Amino acid sequence: MKRRVVVTGVGVVSPLGLDVPATWEALLAGTSGIGPITRFDASAFAVRIAGEVRGFDPATFIEKKEIKKMDPFIHYAIAAAEEAMRDSGLCISGDNAARVGVHIGSALGGLTIIEREHTKLHREGPHRVSPFFIPAAIINLASGQVSIRFGAKGPNLASATACASGAHAIGESFRIIQAGDADVMLCGGAEAPVTPTGIGGFAAMRALSTRNAEPARASRPFDRQRDGFVMGEGAAVLVLEEREQALARGKRPLAEVVGFGQSADAFHLTHPSEVGDGAARAMRQALADAGLAPAEVGYLNAHATGTPAGDAAEVAAIHQVFGGAATSLAVSSTKSMTGHLLGAAGALEAVVAVLALRDGRIPPTINLDEPEFDLDCVPCRAREMSLDYAMSNAFGFGGVNVSLVFRRAEV
């Protein structure tokens, strides 16, 4: 028998707030976290808006002398992990440290540090490059720093599967606990891509919305007037735990992880197949893993970024998988409020699915003025709805697809 895996803690740093309560409240209120870029002078850029994390002070979590030795994506990961661990009430000691692991993904890693050190190299010479450059920037150091901070000596990994990274980290952590290779995993994603290189690169691909004059209305998944995604940043970490252990220590789970599906499009570097066959396979796998019929899922937090091709392909996949049940499925894209957190998106949206199950409330898709698709996209306002199961999708460049299924916690 596979071991059961539950969520016992969650932590978030997002454009809507510096913790879970603030972010969740803003999501339910339909608040946009998108605004003009303040990280750098974006006046010459075609895209001048993003979902920035505001008011974040890394010194709250990290010793001052250590801050410059880490990229902001690591700062965010540590902050989210701190909240998740507090929420879980888990204590790591010499008795259990080897049974606690960390798996935190990122799409891009330390762009801020890479840009800073590259500039120093060319302006001042190689002798000025920081000895902390590499450990401050590489993707697996979010997991590494979190592991060191909490003394977690179990499996330590980092997924780098573009915008599916955070969801992959959760799915693979679920498998690790099921298999008995760990009892607890701190897992999720972190990203800090609001830099000149990050914005410039995605803008050059024409992937980003250029609705600079009205930032709060720029991220418009499922809407006819959508023109690309809005970059976001932040982190989300979940504490996954073997169910019997959690119950034995008196912790009531927030939700249970019951399904994980993954696939590849094998189609194009950046575009999904029009019929969404890869996404459909991932969703079917997740449902089969959970032992569910499609109609049993009440809510789907869609990947839906607001790109013309991506949203259409995901809707096609939803219709393939859910059939006649698709029209009664509540589907929302919280990227309409947070923007797209790239490698952290799948983790943040998994947290949203967990909270929706916990509270029986579904956050809306805002800016849905002209719906293009025949789905219930929970327009504009949050909805109260009793849920037993929720799904979260995350897809990435390279044709990577991940779907996760969560079950409401048993009383």
From TrEMBL:
Which residues does the UniProt record annotate as the domain Ketosynthase family 3 (KS3)? 2-408
Per the record's keyword annotation, is Ribosomal protein included, yes or no?
Answer: no
This entry's Enzyme Commission designation comes to 2.3.1.179
Annotated SMART domains:
PKS_KS (SM00825)
Q: Per UniProt, which keywords does this protein have? A: Acyltransferase, Fatty acid biosynthesis, Fatty acid metabolism, Lipid biosynthesis, Lipid metabolism, Transferase
Q: In which pathway does it act?
A: Lipid metabolism; fatty acid biosynthesis
Entry-linked InterPro entries: 3-oxoacyl-ACP_synth-2, Beta-ketoacyl_synthase, Ketoacyl_synth_C, Ketoacyl_synth_N, PKS_Beta-ketoAc_synthase_dom, Thiolase-like
Keyword Acyltransferase annotated: yes
Tell me which SUPFAM superfamilies the record gives.
Thiolase-like
| Molecular function GO terms recorded | 3-oxoacyl-[acyl-carrier-protein] synthase activity
Q: Which domain of life is it from?
A: Bacteria
What Gene3D superfamilies does the database record attribute to this sequence? 3.40.47.10
Which reaction(s) does the protein catalyse, per the Swiss-Prot or TrEMBL entry? a fatty acyl-[ACP] + malonyl-[ACP] + H(+) = a 3-oxoacyl-[ACP] + holo-[ACP] + CO2; (9Z)-hexadecenoyl-[ACP] + malonyl-[ACP] + H(+) = 3-oxo-(11Z)-octadecenoyl-[ACP] + holo-[ACP] + CO2
Q: Which PANTHER family match?
A: 3-OXOACYL-[ACYL-CARRIER-PROTEIN] SYNTHASE, MITOCHONDRIAL, POLYKETIDE SYNTHASE-RELATED
User: What functional role does this protein have?
Assistant: Involved in the type II fatty acid elongation cycle. Catalyzes the elongation of a wide range of acyl-ACP by the addition of two carbons from malonyl-ACP to an acyl acceptor. Can efficiently catalyze the conversion of palmitoleoyl-ACP (cis-hexadec-9-enoyl-ACP) to cis-vaccenoyl-ACP (cis-octadec-11-enoyl-ACP), an essential step in the thermal regulation of fatty acid composition.
State what protein this is by name.
3-oxoacyl-[acyl-carrier-protein] synthase 2
Taxonomic path:
Bacteria, Pseudomonadati, Acidobacteriota, Terriglobia, Terriglobales
